[in-house]
Amino acid sequence: MARPPRFDLPQLLDAAVRLAAESGPSGVTMSAVAASVGAPSGSLYHRFAGRSALLAEVWLRTVEDFQEGYFAALESSNDPRAGARAASRHVVAWSRAHPREAALLLYGAHEFGRDDWSAEHLLRADKGNMQVRAAVAALAGALGLHGGLALERVSLAVIDLPLSLVRRHLRGGEALPPHAEELAEQCTDALLTGG
Prior knowledge:
Tetracycline Repressor, domain 2; single chain
């Protein structure tokens, strides 16, 4: 009977997230991840084709985890404005609950080597991006907002605005203030009401 692997995939990806939060994408190397969990480098090469596959998995796992809650928040109410407020609040609340992952997402996919990702990883990333665009467009339609400017307003309200609040504090090395969720929600509502 085969012995189960000593270092499982989530454990290795968690270590990579810690390294990315501390040192950015450049700190996520096969040897650094292996060393951080006390695994031989071969353990990583057994699970990842190379560093680009490791970086892709770290990025995609983090984004997909965030998006799962984000989409649920957007769809949490029959009132589209309430769903927008919930989604804005989710950006901040998730970042507060997952500070390492939030710090990782302050970088972009290209900084995690997107140009070298496999076709499978690119497909996963593109699928997630399309889902976000579709959700924003659906929200705009539900709010009765149409056209390019309206879509920009909704994107700003439920994506860019709460992210900028998170970014300012995390990049400054500060904890998110206790009122951050409420502020993000109020600003999102004000921007959508103004539309």
